[in-house]
Every structure is written in C-alpha cells, then in structure tokens.
Amino acid sequence: MESTNRFNPKDTSHINLLSRLAFSYRYLDTDSLYSIGERVLKYSKDIDYAYGEIKGLDALGNYYYSKGNREKSMPLFKEALELAQEIENIECEVSLINTLAQNYSFEGNYAEALNWNLKGIDLAKEAGNQQMLSILNENIAGLYADQKDFKNALMFYDTVQKINRRLGNEVIDAETYSNMASLYKDAKDYKSAMFNINRSINTFEKNKIYDWLAYAYQVKGDIYLNQKKYKWALYWFDQSNMLFKHQIEDDRIKIELMNGMAKVYFGLEKDSLSLKYAEEGLTLSKKIKSLQGQIDCSETLYKVQKKNGNNPEALAYLETFKTLSDSLFMDKNKQSLSLLETKLHYEQEKQELIEANEAALAKQRNYIYFSIIILFILSIILFVIRRSENIQKKLNKKLKDKSEAVIQREAQLHEINKTNTKLFSIIGHDLRGPIGGLQGILKMFTDGDISTKELISFIPKLKTDVENISFTLNNLLSWGLNQLNGVVTKPKRVSLSYLVGNNIRLLSEIAKSKSIKIINQLPENPRIWADNNQIDIVIRNLLSNAIKFTPENGLITIEAQEKSDMWQVSVRDTGIGMTAEMQRSIFKDSSNITTYGTNNEKGTGLGLSLCKEMVHKNNGEIWVESIPRKGTTFYFTVPKAQSRYQKAS
Questions:
Q1: Which residues lie closer than 8 Å to 177 by C-beta, 6 or more apart?
Q2: What is the pLDDT of residue 346?
Q3: High-pLDDT (> 90) share of the chain, %
Q4: Taking Cα atoms as reference points, which of 349, 359, 292 lies closest to residue 106?
Q5: Whole-angstrom Cα distance, residue 190 to residue 276?
Q6: What is the number of alpha carbons within 13 Å of residue 622 lying toward its C-beta?
Q7: Would strands 555-563 and 517-520 be described as parallel, antiparallel, or unpaired?
C-alpha cells in the first residue's frame, strides 16, 4: 500500500492494517506494539475515526498491561470501551470486556473479573459471537481453577468444549486443552493433564502458534516436575525457554518458567543454577507486580539458601514468603465468597431488569388486576367462612340425632369453635386492615380525590399489602383445611433444591428491601420423600420468619445434612433471637400472638404451628435453637428418597 502513488497514511484501510500489525507484536516485541499503537491512535484522532481510536487505545493498554502497570492500562481500556459503546460496535465491546476481566483477574480481583465475564457472555450471546463466548466461559473456568474449585471449573470447561465443537477451530480447541491440562495438573490428575497437553502441543507446533506453544511446554514441564521427574521437566522447560529467547515476550508466563527451572535444578542438586533462575523470576515478578510470582520464587530461594546454610538470607526469603502467602490466602478466602456473591448478585440484577421491563409493558393493566385480586381474596375468605359454618351445622345436627355420641361430638364442636375463633381473629386483625386500606385508596381514586399520578405513588404500598395478604391467606387456608382434616399427605420423590430455590426467588424482593442476603448452601440435588406442597409451606414460612426478624444487612443461610435415613434442614438467621420461654411456646397450637418484625412487619402467629403439623405429617421433627440478639436457627427433618420407585407407606 505504501508503494502506491495514492498512498495516504490517514486512510482507514492503512490504519486498520497498522492496528493488525500492532497486535501481531503483542507477544513478540511490546515496544513495537506501543509505537505502532501510538501511530494508530494519532492517525485515527486526526480524521475522527472512532474504530481506529478504539484499536489504538486497546494496543497501548495491552502494552502497559504486559508491563504490569495496570494503573495506566485500565483507564485506556475503559476509555476504549466507552467509545465502542458510543458507536455501538458490539464486537469491540465484547473484546474489551474480555480484556478488562483478564486485568482484574491478574490483579486478584476475582469478583470484579467474574462480573465483567458475565456481562461479556450476555453481550456475546446477543451478537452471536461464539468465539468470544468460548473465551469468556474459559475465563470463568480459570477463576474457579485459581480458587482450587475444580468442580465448578470443569463445569465451565464442559460448556467451553461444547462451544468449541460448534466453532470447529483446532487452535481454539488446543488453547482450551492447555488450560485444562494446567487444571488437571493442579488437581494431581497427571494422566488427564498429560493427555490434554500433548493434544495442544501437536496443534500449536503444526500451526506455529509460538506464544501458546511456550505456555504448553511450560505446563508439560510442570506436570513432570510435580511427579519429581526432573530430567524430563528440564527438557520441556528448556524448550519453552528457547521460545522466550528467540520468538516471544510474555513476562507472566516467563515467571512461572523461571521458578519451574529453579525447582528442577534444586531437585537435581544444582543449587547455583536454581538460585540464578529463582532470582531472575523474583526480579521479573516485582517488575510486573505479580504477587503469586513473588511468593513462588521467594519460597524456592528460601529452600536453596537454607540448604546451603545461608541462614540470614533464608530467613529473609521465608519472611517474604510467609507475609505474601498470608496476604494472598486471606484475599483468596474473601474472593471465593465474592465469586458466589457476584454471581448471585448478577443473576438477581438480570432478573430484576427483566421484571422491570415486563412491569412497564403491563402498567396500563395494573388497575384492573388490583380489583380482580381484591375480589378474589374476598371470595376465598367468604368461602372459608361459609365452609366452616356448614361444617358446624352438620356437627350440631349429629349431636341432636345421636345422643350416645354426645361427649365425642362436644369435643369436635369445641375444636371447630376454636378454629372459627382463630380464623375470625386472623381475618379481622391481619386481613381487614390491609383490605380496608386498599378499598379506601381505590374509593378515593374513583371519587376523584386523588390523581392517577398519586395513585401510582401508592403502588409500592399496595403491592406490599397484597403480598402480605396473599402470604397470610395461603397459611390461613392450609392451616384451616389441616385443622378440618381436609389435607391428605401424598409423599413422592421431591427435589429439596427446587423447593428452596423457588422460595428464595419468591421472597428475594422482600429480603432485598431490608438488604438481607440469603445464601443457599444445600448439597448437590438432595432428594426427599415427602408431600411437595406441605414441605413447600414449611420452607416458605421459616424463610419468611427469618426475613421478618432479621435486621437490615443481615444474613440468612439454608443448609441440609444427611442423618441416616433423613435430611436435616436448617434455616439460620442473624436476627433478634428469642428467650428460652419463647422457644418453649412458639410451636404450641394455642399460640396465636401477632408478632412484629424488625421493620414492624405483621404476622399471624399461625405459621409455626402450621409448620409443626406439616413436618409431623411427613414423619419428621421440628425444633429451634436461639440466642437473644445473636440469631435463631430452625431445624426440621424429612425422610430421604431411598430409590426412584419408593412407595408411600
């Protein structure tokens, strides 16, 4: 192009070629990456070529990133991302999100890295970019692998391989095999590690992909090193080192290589060479601010110096190793929880966005829905009252006709009267107030006392009232039918994870309003033998109580443990707790005291007695442990599903 008479350095075709040339130097000569990237950025700004500016900023950011200077690289990447979003270039946007995620991962901020990767996955799906979808899922697998969470890492690698099969690109396959080999090496599955690394090396050698080939040689050396096969390890490390000398430039991989060679020479009792490579790795780690590299190289230097009797030097390296290791260990513990919290938070935000869009579309129909819901609630209440009255009339008639059963019928009548009293008390106290409020607001609206805008401002309160009425009514119907022998227990195989997950989603918005985190720590897919609806009621009531009595920014944890032929489920909160006297009385049938939560939430006092009845009907037990001002844990047991064809007793 430059040899033609019409050549113009500011032509977009020339700028695009320069951009591709810059990135071809990424692992070969970072100085060339920088100088060409600067030219791309300058030419692009001169002609206001946004795509070229994005590529120029990306090239400069990669230069600083390779030098370990993330203070300079991160603003450049973010500026490029903002520009890509402005011109709606999804391909550039996904690529930059991937780069940012890798930056956060390298500096140890795994939660932020996971968040960016998840955003990138959604965008890649929208754009139909299968290659970036593979890369972003592989990034997440790497995050879990770094946390030694091999199970979750392999789950994401399974997704990556499915995408790779659709792509049909052997180089991308080989990159995944290299990373999986490193994972299997850390998990001490050397057979699988060697199988995967050999497949990747064959492809990289055939296609002359030198940067990945250097990494693959280094991983193969590590596999032999972990098995103390020092001569074979040295051979593959030397192969990798030759590529670093003549073909590529990547300090992050080189640190691992230098420390690996130091360990090999230490194993071969060539301490001077071990010292040389470990010191070179440590210097490089400090240069690019690699915390893990400093830890690994300091540990190797400590061992070499100690073996040679250089106690002051050995002690200095030991102190460095311990200090950095303790710092990294604490940080990784925090990051493990952050990974879980980030994933849950991201999924929750995504769901809220979907719900908000649906709510916007249904806004005009809300007024009609509220009226229908209120009529439906009143109809159900009327049905319960009429049903109770009919049962009472039948019992009175039987008392007159059968004098020999007077005592038995009197007892039944007494129990029915207790049920009615409790039903009317709950209806009058906990349902009449919210329903009256709803009627009042709607009457004011129909009479013209309030405007549509003012009515809309009442919607959050109306929504809360309706949810409280619905929740109370569900408990009320279940308890009323149970008391009147209207409920039949029908056990079957049930997924406990499904019931818990469903109720967490149901109550997530209430929990969010108090900034309460609900953590599901159930083991993988526990199966129970129970009535699906009854155990669902138990879980929902216990979770609702936990939210009600937990102050803002609290924590609720749901766990399950195997106990012989039962599952023991626990719902633990960090709420206000209860006294020993309260613990003795809360499950009594006669208890009907309305309690108030930390935000003055109302309850019927009905839920726990209902939970007790439902658990007993399913051959389980329920109990509570609590410390005032510390928190409360409710436990209940339920039979395990022994086989797929288990029958009800």
A1: 196, 197, 199, 200, 203
A2: 47
A3: 36
A4: 292
A5: 29
A6: 24
A7: parallel
Separation CA 266–CA 275 (nearest Å): 8
Nearest to 11 by CA among 3, 21, 1, 20: 1
**Contact yes or no for 431/606 (Cβ under 8 A):** no
In the sheet with 517-520, reading across from the earlier edge strand, the strands are 517-520, 555-563, 566-573, 631-639, 622-627
Rounded Cα distance between 203 and 207, Å, is 6
Dihedral angle of Cα 471, 473, 476, 477, to the nearest 10 degrees? -120
User: Measured between alpha carbons, how far is 404 from 132 in angstroms, rounded to an integer?
Assistant: 82
pLDDT tens figures, 392-414: 778 777 777 776 655 666 655 66
Q: Which two tokens stand for residue 248?
A: 């590529």
Contact between 250 and 234 under an 8 Å Cβ cutoff? The reply is no
List strand residue ranges (DSSP E) for 449-580, in order.
492-495, 517-520, 527-530, 555-563, 566-573
Coil, helix or strand at residue 495? strand
Residue 460: how many CB atoms within 10 A of its CB?
A: 10
Total residue count of the chain as it appears in this document: 649
143 Cα distance to chain centroid:
13
> 186: which residues sit within 8 A by CB, 6+ positions away?
145, 148, 150
Q: Is the dihedral of CA 279, 71, 343, 633 positive or negative?
A: positive
Q: Which amino acid is at 263?
A: K
3 state SS for 141-197: HHHHHHCCCHHHHHHHHHHHHHHHHHHCCHHHHHHHHHHHHHHHHHCCCHHHHHHHH
The identity of residue 548, as a single letter, is: K
Pairing relationship of beta strands 622-627 and 492-495 according to DSSP bridges: unpaired
Nearest CA among 619, 411, 438, 449 for reference residue 531: 619
**232 torsion bin: left (phi>0), alpha (psi -120 to 50), beta (else):** alpha
36 phi, psi to nearest 5 deg: -70, -35
**172-215 pLDDT, tens digit each:** 999 999 999 999 999 999 999 999 999 999 999 999 988 899 99
Q: Where are the beta strands (DSSP E) in 535-621?
A: 555-563, 566-573
Q: Are 195 and 162 in contact (CB under 8 A)?
A: no
Write down the number of H helices and E strands in the chain. Answer: 25, 7
Quote the CA–CA distance of 105 and 140 in Å, as a whole number: 10
Helix, coil or strand: residue 133: helix
Query: How does pLDDT run across 546-575, given as a tens digit for each residue?
Result: 999 999 999 999 999 999 899 999 999 999
CA distance 20 to 343: 35
SS3 per-residue string spanning 189-232: CHHHHHHHHHHHHHHHHHHCCHHHHHHHHHHHHHHHHHCCCHHH
Which residue reads 């509570």 in tokens?
624
3-state SS, residue 371: helix
Q: Is the CB of residue 500 less than 8 Å from the CB of residue 462?
A: no
With a CB cutoff of 8 Å and minimum separation 6, the contacts of 404 are none
* Interhelix angle 311-361/291-307, nearest 10 degrees: 160
Listed residue (115, 118, 215, 144) closest to 175, CA to CA: 215
* 3-class secondary-structure state, position 596: strand
Model confidence over 305-357: pLDDT tens digits? 888 888 888 888 888 878 877 665 555 544 544 555 455 444 554 455 455 55
pTM above 0.85, yes or no: no
